Amino acid sequence: MRLYKKEGNIVQILSFPNETVEKGDYLLVEDGEAGKALIVQVIDVQFASIPGILEELLRSLPDGGELIQGEDFDPLEIAPHITYIQDASLLICKIRATMENENLSPSSSWLPSRSQSTIKKLPIPMLLKLAKVNGKLPVILGETKDASLLTIDASSLDGRLNIITGKKETGKSHLSKLLMLNLVEYKATVVIFDLNGEYISLGMTSDEKRNAYNDKIHVLTPSQNFKVALKQLNLHVLLGILIHALHLPGTSAREFRRIWLSLKERDMLNMHELGEAIRNWHCNQHVRDALFSRYHSLANTGFFTDEAAGTMFLEECLFRAREQGGAIVVNLKNTSAIDRQIVVEYVLGKLVDLLTCWKLKATFLFAEEAHLYLRETYWDDIVTRMRHFGIFTTFITNQPDTIRENIYRQADNIFLFNFMNEHDLEVVSRAARVDAETVKSIARDLPPHYCLALGRVVRDFPMVVKVKALDVKTMGETRLFFKDTN
Amino acid sequence: MNHLIEQYTIATTQKYNFPQPTIDATLPQRFIEQSIYSLRNVQNQTIQLNQQTIQQETPTHTLQLKLDPIPLKPRHEETPVAAIDTSSMKIGETSLGILIAVRGATVHKHNRHYNYMRIGPFIFHVTEENKKEVYASLQTAYFAFSHEHTQTYQGMMNIAQMPTRIANLLEKWLQTTLTKTLSKSLILFDGSLTAGTPDTPTRLMKETLRIARERGNAVLAFSKMTNLRVNGHIITEMQPSHKPPYLLEAVGLKPKPPIVLLGDIYVARLTHGNYAFRLDIDKELRHEQKIGSVESLLGNDLLQQSYPETLRLAHILCTFTANEVIAMQHFITRKYGLKILNRPDIHRLLFGLFGRGEGYA
After folding, report:
1. Domain-located, residue B6
2. pLDDT value at position B355?
3. What 3-state class would DSSP assign to A383?
4. Number of folded domains in chain B?
5. Cα(B146)–Cα(B25) distance, rounded to whole angstroms?
6. B contact residues 118-147, partner A, Cβ 8 Å cutoff
């Protein structure tokens, strides 16, 4: 390999057919005299622009598009050299760091010698060691291209905003399960908004036996084992539900507040009394109607109850998880859009309450397709305010444009699976810790289950990893009509 | 049009069999020997890459012209067409001499399909010291000349002419071999049928044409460029108001000895458009055979811009591309340990953008 060109932080390297280099590989451009080396990553592999190549191709297709047939008597065996030159490739590489005395710095301000520099592949384990990616809380993500393990530090997810994205069936949920189980193993509290019931069997192996995490996975299904008594609710949480999920107008919300305070004063906060109070409340008929319609919506969810059984389950699970680590799976499968929003509003409100009064230290929140249940104003809330309370979110989506640009800008880690669509890649490339060329070039060619890890977890050295397999029962498979036939 | 593999119609031989080991294989063998031998002497030297690489051209001649066009009518009876061309190129310089590459190609068209045979590239390191030896060795292998004859011409030989001279030797060998292996075919040469030059001894050219005639072949030589003039005009630029295809016969050219013309000279305008070429046809063929052979060519080969496709392909296939030049330099560097040195171009240094390189005056 020979250094050809440097423009900005892009380096072009000429590579020959016997040197197998692929997108995503790291190279070390060492300048012995300068005592420094550039660490560059291959983001694209192109044909080298060889003079005369067009003539070479054209003369092999003289007419009609068919190769002209013939024989070559090549006594000096020059033909392999011609092929060697023709197949030379140009590696477009992004400078990731400068190495000097085994210390890395993000500088790309110096120019290595074109004639004297040596270029070799930088093995991933060596790069991980140099970049100090391994930490005290190792999480094995999977295998890199050179069959070495990519181990990240769980603490690099702590206090961070993460995004897992990629097109359908590329392995996003699989990675989120992997991260989640590893966090649980390190006694973290994890809350999952499980839209498709994919996480409910995390405690089971693929052959339906209980696994090591079984007693740490708590599945809460709204209206079944997960209900709420009005007494447990803070007024602002319920007002949030009414205003944001059920679109209660401001005037009516003010009346509701009065009703709520009145009931609370008389220690009569339950669904039955709330209904009666709205019925008998002296107020404008339209306001009453508005309040009644919302009341019925709440009642119809089955989520709110006057019975004590099951109403403390969320708190119990969170406290158990606080002690020994655990994942609370909020199963939103078979829940209507409105009910989903109500449940999510409640859970987030509850978490903030518990975190505010330090009953919980911090929580890792995994939100699948959050745009389906998270109200507009919550996005900023989650990444800014709630982060300070100790809610560290991981968004998982196959529609990257449903996550707002400011979320990408603040994301600390991005786990990117394959995307073909230019628009999707464009959206992801807005993330602050990512350069657009890397995202667009590498993500497009990722095979299923391969992920491009970007951000703090890899110390800003983007790495392609084949996500490790998990022995957990797979749920959330697409129901197929022809499954039995095939 | 589709071009598929086809075989030469050589008696009793099913497979395209050129060059047959039994037929004059001496020259390629000597090419290989001389190539390797000359390169061995260049090991571990530095080479200067050419700043300008120019295909070598062959010299041209002068004469007079008949203005009555000979109209042509394509003859479609199946007749194989074959063409020969060679290329040479200076691919670099060493402190002692130059590195040159030579390649030849023959293309054969039969039943509307083209097939080619390429020989080379052969790479030679030619120095002032070894130029005589290299050339004499190759010339002797082909011409079977006496040493004295070889010496006569070599005394005048300039090292810069060596690429063309060696390519000519290969071309002559290919021409002879093709005339010996084909029968009842049209054989197209690049250039003229002028003999008596150092590269084209009259005896050998006559022999080549004689064999061709005996085997029922007709030799047609197309010159891409000519300097023959009539009344100051280049003969190929004279355009009588006659509808192509036609030939104009050139007469009265008396070359100075030892130069001899072994062909009759024509201006061939074979398609519409402004293109015409000097065409030499074996003098010993009867008039109707000469005209018939051109009409056969019209009926059996594609002609674009008055130039036969078979000959065009031969030229294209033997021409060196920049990619191949790099590959040959790579080969020499790897195999013979040459270090490539890019000596500054003095023209560029002195004149900047106005310096067009050392190859220009």
Report:
1. no
2. 60
3. helix
4. 1
5. 19
6. 118-123
Q: Do A85 and B322 touch (CB under 8 A)?
A: no
Q: How confident is the model at residue B131 (pLDDT cuts 50, 70, 90)?
A: confident
**B24 vs A: CB within 8 A:** no
**CB distance B112 to B11 below 8 Å:** no
The pTM for the full model equals: 0.73
Residue B4, in any domain of the structure: no
Q: Indicate whether B318 belongs to any domain.
A: yes
Range of the domain at B217: 26-354
Answer whether residue B16 is part of any domain. Answer: no
Residues of A in contact with B309 (CB under 8 A): 62-63
Element spanning B139, H or E: helix B131-143
Omega prior to B19 cis, within 30 of 0: yes
- pLDDT score of A375: 67
A59 at interface of B, judged by CB pairs closer than 8 A: yes
Binning pLDDT at 50, 70 and 90, where does residue A67 land?
low
* Shortest CA distance from A55: residue in chain B: B321
Report, in angstroms and rounded to the nearest whole number, the Rg of chain A calculated over CA atoms: 29
> Residue B52 and residue B358: Cα distance in Å, rounded?
7
Closest partner CB to A70 (pick from B19, B117, B321): B117
Q: By the CB < 8 Å criterion, does B324 face chain A?
A: yes
SS3 call for A163: strand
Hey, which bits of chain B come out as E strands?
46-48, 70-71, 81-94, 97-110, 113-127, 186-190, 194-195, 218-223, 229-230, 233-234, 246-250, 260-261, 263-269, 277-282, 303-304, 307-308, 339-341
How far, in Å, CA of B76 to CA of B282, rounded? Answer: 21
Tell whether A271 is within 8 A of chain B (Cβ): no
Q: H or E element: which one contains A414? A: strand A413-416
Cβ distance A84 to B330 less than 8 Å, yes or no, reads yes
Q: How far apart are CA A345 and CA A370, in angstroms?
A: 12
CA proximity to A43, closest of A439, A460, A453: A439
Q: Which among B28, B118, B324 has the least Cβ separation from residue A70?
A: B118
Tell whether the model's pLDDT for residue B345 goes beyond 60: yes
Chain B residue with the nearest C-alpha to that of A61? B3
Residues in B closer than 8 angstroms to A81, CB to CB, are 327-328, 330-331, 334
Contact at CB, B117 and A73, closer than 8 angstroms: yes
Per-domain residue ranges of chain A: 2-122, 149-226+310-467, 228-305
Q: Which CATH number fits domain A149-226+310-467: 3.40.350.10, 3.40.50.300, 1.10.3720.10, 3.30.390.30?
A: 3.40.50.300
Distance, in Å, from the CA atom of A311 to the CA atom of A316, rounded to the nearest integer, reads 10
On the question of a cis peptide bond just before residue B308, with omega within 30 degrees of 0, the verdict is: no
Helices (H), A302-428: 313-324, 337-356, 376-380, 386-389, 405-410, 422-428
The mean of the pLDDT values for chain A is 85
